[in-house]
Amino acid sequence: MEENLKDLTSINCRPLLFVTCFFTTLGTCIPIGYFLGIMNGPAVFIKDWCYLTIKNKSGVSLNTSQLEILWALIVAIFLIGGVCGSLFAAWCCNKFGRKSTLLFSKILLMASGVLLLLCRNLDSVFVLLLGRFIGGLAAALITTAHPMYLLELSPVDRKGSVGVFTSLGIAIGICISEVMGLKQVFGNPESWHYAISFFMIFVLVSLPSYFWLMESPQWLLNHRKQDCLAARKVLYNIYGSQSISFIYKEETTQPPISEPKNSKELSLLEVLRDRKSFMPLVLVLTLQACQQLCGINAVFYYSVSIFTEAGFDEDNANWMNLGCGLLNCAIGFLTPFLMSRFPRRLLLFTSLTGCLTTSFGLAFALKYMVSY
């Protein structure tokens, strides 16, 4: 058995694994990161458009607080869509497969992009809200299926490096959105609708890859046992002949690969009742809560406003916002290196400590901030 595991971890992956990581990240995670960052730069122009649209259509003039509430809804409805989508994301992954779920998410992204592109010409704030909501649904599917898909394709010794493609793609998407949101590009009164829908380019470029990307072999074995040969073909295309020899070697000491042990799936209620799942569930929920409450959403949604209130003019605030995105992207590129050389637990605690420290610093600065 030890010899077999050694064979598995020493597999020389073919370039197809990297190509799969690249195209799936390009068409899914980068658009999600784009969604997170794009509303920051052209926020002033979108608010003005919302004010004028509602006034012209219904004759209602929103005051400052009402306009801020509407803007908060436009920003938050993307996250609301994510919460709704998360309720059926796992079911889609198990029912239709990881690859098909990613394709469905791309269709949702395209629908969202079309709505965001047309909202200005249609003079409809509702269309803007609907486009953001559908984007949130797509984000839930992507953040569930994408890491699952890549990890199930990768060998043991590369799961850490491959697993960071999701967060790396989101960081790159945020950085690109901040470039597109500059006044010199699309962040102006005439072109902001192009800015918020530009992510469709990435989805369109990645769509043809669906026809040659492979389904997860683990999903094929667990949900379509008759496709055992298809699963082996996937493994062969990714790993080469060594993986096939490993599979046949394993079959001599374990049950057939088409009949995996403990393949029964648990419902959410069964997971909550299972004592063995209690501690892993607490850890997952704690990490997710720390991630969502670390303050990064406030930074990327309102950093331009924060810099403006600090006394910087609008142009400088947008450039400083881009600097934040570049720093975030640079750290994302370091992640594969760090994951392969340092323990995960140490990286988690270091990251959480850094988030806690900087969040206190940001809160202190916002409380006692004086324009320079």
UniProtKB/TrEMBL annotation:
> Where in the cell?
Membrane
Q: Which keywords describe this protein according to UniProt? A: Glycoprotein, Membrane, Transmembrane, Transmembrane helix
Tell me, in one coarse class, where this protein mainly resides. Answer: membrane
For this protein, the record's Pfam families field holds: Sugar_tr
Identify the GO cellular component terms for this protein: membrane
Where does the chain cross the membrane? Answer: 16-39, 69-93, 100-118, 124-150, 162-180, 192-213, 281-304, 319-339, 346-366
Q: Which residues form the signal peptide?
A: none
Q: Which Gene3D superfamilies match?
A: MFS general substrate transporter like domains
Question: GO MF terms on file?
Answer: hexose transmembrane transporter activity
What InterPro entries does its record include?
GLUT, MFS_dom, MFS_sugar_transport-like, MFS_trans_sf, Sugar/inositol_transpt
Q: Which domain of life is it from?
A: Eukaryota
Which ranges carry the Major facilitator superfamily (MFS) profile domain?
26-372
Q: How does it sit in the membrane?
A: Multi-pass membrane protein
Full protein name: Major facilitator superfamily (MFS) profile domain-containing protein
Native organism: Glossina brevipalpis
